[in-house]
Design goal:
It is a single chain. The protein has about 240 residues and is an alpha+beta fold. The chain has a domain of about 60 residues: Orthogonal Bundle (Arc Repressor Mutant, subunit A), CATH 1.10.10.10. The protein has a three-stranded antiparallel sheet. A three-stranded antiparallel sheet has the order 8-10-9. β9 and β10 form a beta hairpin. It is globular.
Length: about 240
């Protein structure tokens, strides 16, 4: 049986990370292409507003209906998106425009809301905009400024700092239970947890621990892995 050495493991982790980032970039392109070809009828806009709390006002012919739908679902004016943001619109001269970069990140996270739940670290937000003409140009500092802009405009739900200093961005008004917050802070120490560890150290029942872990896994914050050597573990990529 081949036993992987430290360098093999590091190489595999790096390769997996590169594949993950490439997958994010390709998915963003695919989803944005689909969004451009979507026919936004009044009914579709209203359904989207009801489901996500956001108004997509891409179609100029629907402008007369936007205010009606906004009032109907009590949507803040800051959450009316009037244009589909693209990478090139984020660069003004040689500088990154925080407002445009923030809206690009917001729209990309919105397109995969069902998978991530809208809860990402600053690093994960960076991965979603470090693509195309922005690749190698945009910095983590640019992303932080963009996220702060979104927060000040009341477009996103909030920014939280975990015990290890990792900043988590909650893009949508989804409230996490106290248990999930406790697990996130617990995971910040080593980047992963086991069911047994959570149950023993927090003195929780197995059912209570599993409910919180299942939800964090479902929205993409935690990733489950099971192997013969390590047993069942939930990894938190944002804690790296």
């Amino acid at each position: 049986m081949h036993v992987m050495g430290i360098r093999d493991i590091q190489r595999k982790i790096k390769l997996d990370e590169e594949k993950r980032k490439k997958a994010i970039e390709l998915k963003a392109m695919d989803l944005e292409a689909k969004a451009r070809t979507t026919k936004w009828t009044k009914e579709r806009v209203a359904e989207f507003a009801k489901t996500h709390g956001i108004l997509l006002a891409f179609d100029p012919s629907l402008q007369a209906d936007i205010e009606e739908i906004r009032k109907q679902y009590n949507i803040p004016k800051g959450r009316i998106i009037s244009e589909q943001m693209t990478e090139d619109k984020c660069i003004k001269g040689k500088k990154i425009e925080p407002a445009s970069l923030g809206m690009l990140a917001y729209q990309r996270v919105l397109l995969e809301k069902e998978e991530t739940g809208g809860l990402l670290s600053i690093g994960e937000v960076f991965d979603r905009v470090n693509t195309g003409v922005l690749k190698g140009v945009v910095t983590s500092q640019d992303v932080e400024k963009a996220v702060v802009f979104l927060h000040k405009q009341d477009i996103i739900a909030g920014i939280n700092v975990l015990d290890n200093g990792v900043k988590m961005v909650n893009f949508f008004p989804v409230q996490f239970t106290a248990d999930q917050s406790i697990i996130l802070n617990f995971a910040a120490k080593q980047g992963w947890v086991t069911l047994e560890e959570i149950s023993m150290k927090l003195k929780w029942s197995t059912d209570r621990a599993m409910r919180a872990l299942d939800h964090l896994q479902k929205i993409g914050v935690a990733r489950f892995d099971e192997s013969y050597r390590t047993g069942k573990k939930w990894y938190f990529p944002t804690m790296k």
